[in-house]
From TrEMBL:
Statement: the UniProt record of this protein carries the keyword Transcription regulation: yes
SUPFAM superfamilies documented for this protein: Sigma2 domain of RNA polymerase sigma factors, Sigma3 and sigma4 domains of RNA polymerase sigma factors
InterPro entries per UniProt: RNA_pol_sigma-70-like, RNA_pol_sigma-70_dom, RNA_pol_sigma-E_actinobac, RNA_pol_sigma70_r2, RNA_pol_sigma70_r4_t2, RNA_pol_sigma_r2, RNA_pol_sigma_r3/r4-like, WH-like_DNA-bd_sf
Annotated keywords: DNA-binding, Sigma factor, Transcription, Transcription regulation
All copies of domain RNA polymerase sigma-70 region, residue ranges: 37-86
Organism (species): Kribbella hippodromi
Keyword Transcription regulation: yes
Residues of the RNA polymerase sigma factor 70 region 4 type domain: 124-175
Family per record: Belongs to the sigma-70 factor family. ECF subfamily.
Protein name: SigE family RNA polymerase sigma factor
Amino acid sequence: MDRLLTDMTAELAAVRGQVEDRRRAQATDFDEYVVARYQQLVRMARLLTQDWALAEDLVQSALVKCWGAWGSIRSEDPTAYVRRTVLTTYFAWYCWRRSRPERLTSIDLERPAVDEYSVVENADLLDALRALPKRQCAVIVLRYFEDLTEAETAAALGCSVGTVKSQAHRALRRLQVALSAAGQADEEAGNR
């Protein structure tokens, strides 16, 4: 009986050691992934949210969600999974914020002197992106800024390739109209 108890204790200790080794390896793997992809994810989120601080919060929230399932995520394509998590978190935040609008009244938050996540320096383009419906904005960001294929964009958004094509077409048309109007306004202001 003592021998059986000693053997079981030894086996349990060995299993615990293996589990701890896996956890350490998973933590190291996750840390390496975050270091390698964080800036890219924040850039994507920055284009979606138009706000550098909100973009960082969005990416961090998505990464927290991914940490719990990292072992199974890592066996697949982790970037696609994390990107999808960022997008679903973004859409959830957008719905939540729309139902509970927050307005800063007497606080003027300073932006950093250098926006390290600045991807687009064209203010008219950023304004036009901001005016797009959230789904169309996500399609444009994924297709043209993240350089994903139509199939990869569809997988990230959880829709069909046809939906990506139609949303991209509509968004590009809206962007063209908005940028043409902004260009005309700039031209008229220059003529004055």
